[in-house]
Amino acid sequence: MAEDRELEDVVALLPPLLRSLETLSFVARHMHPPNFASVLRAAGTPETDLPRLREPLALWPERLAEPRGFLETAIDETLAAFSALRAAEGEAGDVGALYRAFRHIPRAHEALYPMARNIAPVSRYFLEPAVRGDAELQKRLMEAEPSESTGIGHLANEPGSRGGFSLYVPEYYTAEKAWPLVMALHGGSGNGRAFLYSWLRAARSHGAILVSPTSLDRTWDLHGGEGDTANLERILGVVRARWNIDPSRLLLTGMSDGGTFSYVTGLTATSPFTHLAPISASFHPVLVQMADEERLKGFPMHIAHGALDWMFDISVARMAQQHFTGAGALVTYREIADLSHTYPSELNPEILAWMDATRVDAARITQS
User: Fold this and answer.
1) How many of the other CB atoms lie within 10 Å of CB of 265?
2) For residue 252, which of 14, 273, 313, 340 is within the disulfide window of CB 3.0 to 4.6 Å?
3) Which residues does 108 contact at the CB level (< 8 Å), separation at least 6?
4) What's the domain count of the chain?
5) What does the CA dihedral 134, 139, 142, 143 come to, rounded to 10 degrees?
6) pLDDT, averaged in runs of 10, over the chain (368 residues)
7) pLDDT at position 368, please?
8) If we measure between CA atoms, which residue out of 234, 292, 273, 278 comes closest to residue 359?
9) DSSP H stretches of helix in 31-162
10) Residue 277 falls within a domain, yes or no?
């Protein structure tokens, strides 16, 4: 039967495709310009069979055009990422070429994610490794009724646009309880639609609503203008009006410029956020002077930075820890020995657990 043949195509394709995507995530996480060639060699060539396995998809009937398109796009973006990475290896340390290559990874994820609802290996791929054996979680995800209020959505956040946002609401969401919210800010020249996938596994695995905005300009207004701050508050208002959000667990986090902007906007007296988790962010003592003095006292902050960071030296994170602790903030500090200027998604579950553990203090702060 045609259905049997198409199922065989999927069974043959998914292992090398998912393995290739895991490898790309490994390369992105461990990318450090001086060591890039060795990381790429360690990655090997897991994508070798993908062009051959893509060919049978062209024979699928028209009624399967949508899943065929998802798979073809995921394959094409995966192959493009490997090709661009290998080209960048010969471009004498062009860091920009590396980051452009990594843009293909979230595009592959976006194409593949709709298949998570019906295909168990894809669903497991979009979970944290530690919970992939959780049969009850798998069951909840696979049996959840499709809804316009759950899953991944985008509001005015098409590629190339500015000021909109993407979000993820767990498929097993119910309005009977209040859910933690993570607002994750992309780095300079990035966008929220792509950065969503830096946090998707953690939000899906541990039950959090994830919001990933796009800055109004190429990066966030690090000088403290009202534009991006007002837009984040608007976005938060839209989300809170539709979903049941726990007011004691509102995390603002971000990578690089996004992390720096979390300091700028998250420490004002009127900020609604209860926790900050800047990752690989810059810092200057003036950020402490700009912050609301009373808000800083007892405020929970989770600062993480890579010892290999070539853009913002580790000294800026150490300085941030010292200054914010001195101002009375409750600072959890993580210095990651093998992290360069890339996103350490393995920290996300720990950050969610940290937010749960410190939410009583956060509730006191926001009520003051």
Assistant:
1) 25
2) 273
3) 21, 24, 73, 74, 77, 78, 81
4) 2
5) -160
6) 81 98 97 92 97 97 96 98 91 80 97 96 98 96 93 96 98 97 96 98 98 97 91 98 97 98 95 97 93 93 97 97 96 98 98 92 56
7) 45
8) 273
9) 36-43, 50-54, 65-89, 95-102, 104-112, 120-125, 135-143
10) yes
Tell me if 114 is assigned to some domain: no
Q: How far apart are CA 102 and CA 186, in angstroms?
A: 14
- pTM here is 0.95
Q: Say if CB 179 and CB 244 are below 8 A apart.
A: yes
Which stretch of DSSP H or E encloses residue 181?
strand 179-185
Q: Does residue 358 contact residue 275 with C-beta atoms inside 8 Å?
A: yes
What is the residue range of 92's domain? 2-107
Same domain, 41 and 158: no
3-state secondary structure of 352: helix
Within a domain: residue 191? yes
Is 355:275 a contact under the CB 8 Å cutoff? yes
Q: Are 93 and 32 in contact (CB under 8 A)?
A: no
Q: 149 with 227, same domain?
A: yes
Distances (CA, A) of 116 to 57, 127, 193, 273: 18, 10, 18, 31
Residue 302 in domain: yes
Give yes or no: residues 42 and 160 share one domain. Answer: no
- Rounded Cα gap, residues 302 and 355, in angstroms: 9
Task: Tell me the C-alpha distance between 243 and 268, whole Å.
Answer: 25
